[in-house]
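#onboarding

Welcome to the new folks! Below is a worked example of what a typical request in this channel looks like: someone posts a single protein sequence, and someone else replies with the predicted structure as tokens. Don't worry about understanding the tokens yet, we'll cover that in week two.

Example request:
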Amino acid sequence: MILMETFSMNKFAFLELNKLNLLITTILVLFLISFAFIVPFTKMITPASASASAASSSALTQRTDKHTKSSRKTIFLIRHAESEENRRLACLSRSIKGLASLKLPTKSDMKSSVQLLNISAQIDSQVSYIGQQQIKQVGQKIKQDDFVEKMGIQLVVHSPLIRARQTSEGMLECVAPSQDSNSSHHSNRSDDQISQGSRHKYVSRVVELDVLKEKTPMEWLPANKETFRKRIEDFEKWLADQPENVIAVVGHSQYFKSMLGLPKKFKNCDVWSLQFDYNGHLDDVTDSSIQIDATVDTFAIEGNHPEHEDAHEVDGVRLDNLDLPKRWRTLKRHYTFSA
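Example response:
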């Protein structure tokens, strides 16, 4: 009897030791994944910076004199749909948070976290399955509302990263011809359509700009802060120089957050609008706070803006006293994805 109890206790201790070993091993694996993802990714970004700047210089010279240019413009900002990198990073974050509660990550989260070790696949990843659903839902609503026509969007400009290209093509039916003839990326539509480019019938021009790329790992370093700020400054100068007065921009969360000085990132596939004047001549515009305008209801996805929602609170953040940079005023949300 004593022998049986001793055996049971030893078996229990052995199982608990195995669980502890598995937990420690998982922690080490996730740590190595995080480290391996950040360091090589940073190194891979460094040599690309010079070529990206050179490409930006040529892109920034593109313009047309078809429209009468005004110093004040209406700018629509659209964050790209969820990408595969977004999904994998969310899995890694969820796994690490679970370990804090001594919970092992799911097999699915571990598998996705390990995929981050394929650095080249993260640099310019396609939209995820959820991202495709986001594009489909918001894109259909935009089309049903004739949003592009009613808002008078004349120019669409997007980042060259594939997730932004796919979002621009899927939501606005606009994408510039691909500059990479060997690209294997594709959207829900045919490969030819996104590589050859497309343009909505009411849009005059579609442009791809390197300066709209997301904030790179190198630009997160304090020493390179001005490099990122310079890219944003170049983009704002480019906006001011364009003859079109109503422009849609498809880009990235950290880029928009930094450009507008926001405390929180836009959600995937969010559509926002602002008034922009490069010289800051916007004193007659109401204020610089974020609003949900009365006119938005015409275009909002059903259920996104309940009657009790505070017009000065968006996604749980009080923004009625927020001061946007002097070139920007009156940020309003028009669409957001309903999960």
